[in-house]
Queue: 2 jobs
Job 1
Amino acid sequence: MANMAQAIRMALHIGETELGVKDVFGEDVGPPLGGVFTCTQGIKCAWNSPLDERGIIGCALGLALAGQRPVAEIQFADYIFNTIDLLKLCGNTRWVSNGQWPVQMVVMVPVGAGIHGSIYHSHSFESVMTHLQGWKIVIPSTPLDAFGLMLSAIKDPNPVMYLIPKALLRSRGEEKIPGEPEDPKELNTMIDAPLGDRSKWKPVWPKLKDPNMLLGKAKICLGGRDVSVITYGRMVFKCVEAAQKLKEQDNISVEVIDLRTLFPYDQEAIFDSVKKTGRVVVVNEDTEVTNYGEHILRRITEDCFYSLEAPPALLAGANVPGVGLAEPLEEASVPQTSYIIDTVRRVVKQS
Amino acid sequence: MPFSKEKQIKIHDLMVKARLLEERLIKMNKSGLGFFWIGGAGEEAFHVPLGMLIKKGEGLDYDFLHFHYRQSATLLTLGVEMIDVIRQMHNTAADPYSGGRNFVNHFAVKKWNVVNVTSPIEVQLATCIGTGVAHRRHGGEGITIVTGGDAGTAEGEFASALGWASRKDRELPILNIVTDNRYGISTPFAEVHCDRPIAERGRAFGIESATINGNDVAESYAAIEKAMAYVRKKRKPYLLEVKVSRLYGHSSASGANWVEGEVDGIVEFEKKLKNAKILGEDDFKKVREKYEQESIEAVKKVLKEPKPKPEVIFEHIFADRKDAEIPWPPWLKK
C-alpha cells in the first residue's frame, strides 16, 4: 500500500514517461534529495532550481507557453506568497489573450499544519489560492486520490494548483492504487531511494493504471442522514474519526464529503447532501476570516436555504498570524477532532 | 550605413508608420475614443531593426518574444496591421490581441510567439526563463528575447533572469534587452539606482553585455545583429542596454504631451537619409501622409465595429468554458 509521497512520485513517473512532462523542478526537487518530502525521488526529468520562487513560477509559465507541460514545486506554501502576481499571470494568460495562449502546467505545494512545523511550515493556502482565477485547485486526502488527481492535473489543459496536505504524506490509504504491490515493503524496495550514496540507484516502477479521475468531483467518504460535513485535505480523516465517534456516542449519522477539487467545486454533490440532511458543517484548517469555506457556506445558505433545519456552521483555523510550535498552541490554532464533534453535535441539536 | 538603400527606406517607412500610429492612438485617447494610452514613441530607431532581425514564427524553432508595452514598432515590423492596434485602443470585439480586455500596445500573437504583454513591470523577466529552458533543450537557432525598462531593473525578476540564464553548463539563450529612457513614470533613474550602466550588471553573472544608443538606427541594427548572432550560436545570454527617448511621456496618465529636449530618432535618421540623398523632404512628407491617411481610415472603420458582448467575460478562463461557470453572476445572461 503506497503512502501519499510514493503515490505522487509514481504519478510523476507516468507523467514523464507517458504524458509528455519534461520538467519536474523546484528547490531540492532533483537528485540527490528528490524533494524534502521525497515526492520526486527517482524522477528522471526532476531538476534543482535556484532558490527563487518567483523564478520557479515564471519558469513554469514560460515552459507551458512553449508547450512543455511542466510540474513545478514550491517547497512549502509558506514560501509561495511572494509569487502571487505570477500565479495571477498564469491564471489570466489564456483569458487576456482571448484564448490564444493556453497554459498547461501544474504547481504542487505542501500545505497545512500537523507536523509541528511552526509559523513557516504550517500555512494553509486555499483561501488565497481560490481568489486567483483561471486555476483549477485540487487537494487529495488519500494516496489513491493523490495519484489519480496528479495524473488528471498533468493531463488538464489549464493551470492546476496541486495542494499537498503535508501531514498526510506518510499516510497510507485503504484503497489501493490499481497495480501497486500488495506488500508496502516491496514497494519501498522498488521506489524508495536508499540512504547514503544514491548515485547508482535506479527505481523499479510498478505498472500502474490511471484511474482517470475527473477534476471537480467530490467523494462521499461516509454516507449519513443527519448532518453533512463538507471538508478536504488533512481534515477529512479528522472528520471521519469525529463521525465514527458521533455514531457510537450519540447515534448521529454524519455524511462526510471530501471535495478533492476546490475549484471548480462539485456544487451538485454539496447541494444534494445538504438537501438530504438539512444540516451542514464546513471544516478546514485555513484561518477563518475570508475563508474558502465561507464561500461554500454562502452558496449553501443562498441556494439550499429552505432545506436547512439549523444554522450552518464553519469550523476553521483561528484567525492568528501563524500556527505556533508548542502543542497547546497548534491545537488551539487548527480544528481538532473534539472541536469537530462539538460543532456537529451543536448543529444537530439546533432546530 | 552598413545596409542597403532599400533597407534604409524600409526602416524609415516603418519608423514613421509606428510614430503616426502612436500619435493617432494619443489623439484617440484625448478625444475619448480609447480609455488609456501607453506606447513607444521615441523607441522606433531600435525597435524596427529588432523586428527585422527576429526569427519570426510559432514554436521553438523560432524566437519567443516577451515584450513590454513600448514596442508597437517591433510588432508593425513583424507585420501587425495598424487597424488591429486601433481595435485594441478602442477595445472592440475584433481586437485580435485581447478581445477588448486589455490596454493598447498589450499584444499577444501566438502565431509569432509573442506572449502577452503585461502591465506588471518585469514579470516577463521571470516568464522568459521558461521559454529559455525550452529553447536550450530544443536547440537550433530560436532564442528567447525579453524586453524591460530601466526602472524595472529594480525588480527581483531582473536578477532572476540574469541568474537563471547564467547557471554554469545550463546557460539559457536569452537576449535580455533593457530600454533605458531614464525614467520610471516620473522618478528619475538617478534617484533610485546606482550611478553605473545597467549593462555592467551582466558582468557579475559572466554575461556578455553592451550599452548602445537606441536612437541611432545603424548602431541599433549592428548591435542587435551582433547580440543575436552570439545568443543563437553560443546558446548563452546577452544583456543589451539601449538608450532611448520617451517623446510623449509615460502614458496618457501623465498627459501624453510632447516632451521637449529629447532626441527624436526619426529626425536623426532623416538627416542621414537626406545627406546620403536616399530620401528628401517630399518623400518624408509622402510617407507621413500615407500613414496619417491609413490611421484615419482605420479609426473610421473601427468606430463602426461592435464592442464585446458582456457574457464573453466567462470565455477563455479555462479551455472548457463550463469549468468557469459556477458561481455565475445573477445579472449576466447565460
Note: The radius of gyration of chain A is 20 Å.
Job 2
Amino acid sequence: MDELEQWRIQLQQWSRQGAEWFHQMPETQLYAAIAVVFVTTFFLLSIRLFKRTKSNTVVLTGLSGSGKTTLFYQLQDGSSHLGTVTSMDPNEGTFVLHSEIAKKGKIKPVHVVDVPGHSRLRPKLDEFLPQAAGIVFVVDALEFLPNCRAASEYLYDILTKSSVVKKKIPVLILCNKTDKVTAHTKEFIRKQLEKEIEKFRASRSAISAADVVNEFTLGVPGEAFGFSQCHNKVTVADASGLTGEISQLEEFIREYVKP
Amino acid sequence: MLEQLLIFTRGGLILWTCKELGNALKGSPIDTLIRSCLLEERSGAASYNYDAPGAAYTLKWTFHNELGLVFVAVYQRILHLLYVDDLLAMLKREFSVIYDPKRTAYDDFDETFRQLRMEAEARAEELKKSKPVAKPVNNSKKQGQVQKVGFEGGNKKKGGSGPGSDGGDGNGRKMENGHANGNTDETKVALVANGKENASSNIGAFDVNKLQKLRAKGGKKTDTVVNKGSKVDPNKKITKKNRVWDVSPTESKLDFTDPADQNGDENAVIVAADEGESMMDKEEIVSSESETEEDEEMEKDSKMETKKKGWFSAMFQSIAGKANLEKADLEPALKALKDRLMTKNVAEEIAEKLCESVAASLEGKKLASFTRVSSTVQAAMEEALVRILTPRRSIDILRDVHAAKEQRKPYVVVFVGVNGVGKSTNLAKVAYWLLQHNVSVMMAACDTFRSGAVEQLRTHARRLQIPIFEKGYEKDPAIVAKEAIQEATRNGSDVVLVDTAGRMQDNEPLMRALSKLVNLNNPDLVLFVGEALVGNDAVDQLSKFNQKLADLSTSPKPQLIDGILLTKFDTIDDKVGAALSMVYISGAPVMFVGCGQSYTDLKKLNVKSIVKTLLK
C-alpha cells in the first residue's frame, strides 16, 4: 500500500512537470505535433483497411473426422506427425506452404484456419468466414455415404451464408483419403452432394418462413441443382492428407492467395 | 495397466504418445471422449467410461489451459488404477516445462515418462502398504472418513448401477490387497475399508479423488498443521519423508528421478517437492486465496470510500493482466454466474455442473490485459452455452420426412411427457405446420387413458381436416399405434403423429407401457414435450424418461428421446432456463417451441437470444 502511495505522489509530480513544460512551448510547435499525430493515425488506419480488402485467409472446414487437422499440418509442416484426434479448438497459422519453402524469392504467407467439424462447434465458423479468401470443404471420400446427408447439409449451410454469397468466396470441395482403395471418386461425390442439396433446397425453402437463418436460396428454381449455378465458384478436387498428396489443394490456395 | 497415454493440443494434434504402451485400442475411445464428454461441457467430471464391443475402458484427463494441452490416460475398466491422477498431474508438470508451440515431436519425453510412471506406481504401492502400518489413532480416524464416504457411495449405488460389474471390481481389489498386505491381522480391516472404498469409487471418480485426498492425509500426519498455518516446517517434512522412504524398498527407484528433473536445483529441494506435492499446492492456494480476499476487500473499500489506492491497484492489475487464473480467483465470479443462471430457472444441478466445467476450462489460463475475471468467466460461459444449445443432429424434420417418403414409409413421431404439459395441443400445432408444407398428416389417438383425450384430438383433426386413427379407450396404446402406422402405410400418409397419455416419470407401470409403445413401433422421432415453467424437476423428468426407455428396452440399441418440444414459452418472460436444463441433461435439441394458443404459435428456438437472456 505504501508503495502505491509513493507511486501516486510520483505520478502527480510528473504530471505537474509535464503541464509546466507544456505551457512553455510555442503554439506552432503544438499544432505541428497534433497534426503529426493525426496524420500517423490516419495512415495506420488506412493501411489496416487496405490490408483487410486483400485477405489471405483460407478456411478448412467439413465434418468431424474428415481430416482437416491432418491437412492443416500437411500444409504447414509437410507431415501429419503422430496423428490427430477430434479438435476442440480451431488451429490457426500464418505460414509459407511447406512445399514452397525451398523456392526462392519472397512468398506471401497464407493464413490457414482449421475449424473443428463437430456440430457443437459450428458457430465458430462464422468468426472466420467474413475474412476468408477461400473455403475448403473437406469430405471423407472413404466413409462418404453414411455421412452424405450431414455433409451436404453443412455444405448447404455454408453456401447459403450471407457472408459467402455476398463476397462470392470460392469453395473447394476436397475429397480426402483418396489413397484408400475403396474411396469414392470425386465425380461420384459431386453428383451425390448435388442430389442431396437439391432435396435440401426443397425442404429448406419450405422452412424458411419459420426460420430466417438462410436468407439466400441456392440455384435456379425449377432446375436440378448443380454447383455451377452458385454465385461463387465451386470446384471439386482430390487429396490424401495422410500420404501428403495435396497438390490440388495447394493450387487452389495459391489461386486465391497470390504468392 | 495403462492402455494408452496421449498428450494432444486442443486443436487436435497428438504431440506425444507412449510407444511402450503401444496397445491398439479397440474402437476410438479418445475421439468418443472428446465428442461426448469434453465438448458437451461435462469436463468437470473426473472420469469417462467407454464401452465398445470387446472393450471397456476408463479414461481420465487433465487440461493445461494456458498452453492448450490435454492429457488423457486410458486403462481397462476392471483395473482401478489409483496412480493415474497422480501420473497425469506429474506428466502435466513435466511436459509443460519442455512444451514449445513450434515443436511437434517430443521423442525425448519417453525417458522422463518412464521415470514418472515408475515413481507414480511406487507411490501407489507405498500408500497401499503404509495404510495398515499407520498409527492406530490415525488409522481409525481415516477409516471413519473412508467409511463415511463409502456409506454415501453405498447409498447412491442402491439407486443406480447394476451388480454385475461390482462383483468383478471387488475381486480385482481383493487380489490387489492380497499382495499388498503383509499382516494378516490388519488385512481384514483393510479389506473392509477397501470394500467400501470400492463401492464409493464405483459411483464416480469424484469420490476417487476424495479418497486419494483422504489417503494422502492418512499418510501425512503433519498435514493438518500445514493446512492451518501456511508455514511448512522443512525439518518435520524431511523426517517424515525419511520414515516413509525407510519402509519402502524402492528408494533407489525414487532417487532415480533426480537427474530427470534436470533443473540443477539442490537435491533437498527436489526431494521435498516430490513428496510434498499436495502440500505445495495447498500452500499456494491458501496464499492466493488470502490475496484475492484482500483484493476483494480492497475493491469493496474503494466502492465505499472511493479510495484512490484501490482504484489504482485494480487499474494496474487490469492493465498488466493477472498471472494464471486459479480456482480461487474464479470462485466469486462463478458463484455470481451460477446464481444468475438459477434465477433464470436453470436447474441447480445443471448450473453447478456448467460452472465446474467452465472453471476447468479456465483454470491456469492467463487473464488478458484490460479484462476482469468476471468478464472472462462470462465470455467462457457464453461460449459453453452456445455450444450446448447448438443442435448436435439435424433438426430439419421436413428433410427427414421427405427421406422417409422416398422409402415409402410413414414418418412416425411419438409425443411423450408428463401430465398437462400440452402434448395434444402442440401435436395439433405440429400437424398444422406440416400441413402447410404439403405433407399429409395422420393423427393417432393413443391416449386411451384420460377421459376426453380422444375427443379432444378428434376436434383438432376436424378443424385441421386431417384423418385420425382412434380405437376408443382402455386399449393397449402400443397396439393402437401399430395399427395406426399400418393404416398410414395403406393410405399413403407421410407423417403419423402419435399422442400418448401424460404420465409422471415415477409411475412404473405407465412408463413400462410407454417403453413398450416405443419399442414396438420404432418411431423415427420421440419428442419429449416439456413445459418451460419447470425448474429443478426438468432434470428428473428427462433423465427418468430416458432411463426408463433404455432400461425397459429389449433391443441392444434403445431408442431414447430424440428431441424436445418446449411448451408454454410465452408465459415465462426471461426465465428461459428450462431450455438449457433439458438440452443439457438429454443431449437432444429443442426442435419446436410452443408459444401461444393458436395453431400458428410454433417457433424454433433462437439460440442466440436464449443465451443472451440467460446471461442478462
Note: Residues 133-239, 250-308 of chain B have pLDDT under 50 and may be disordered.
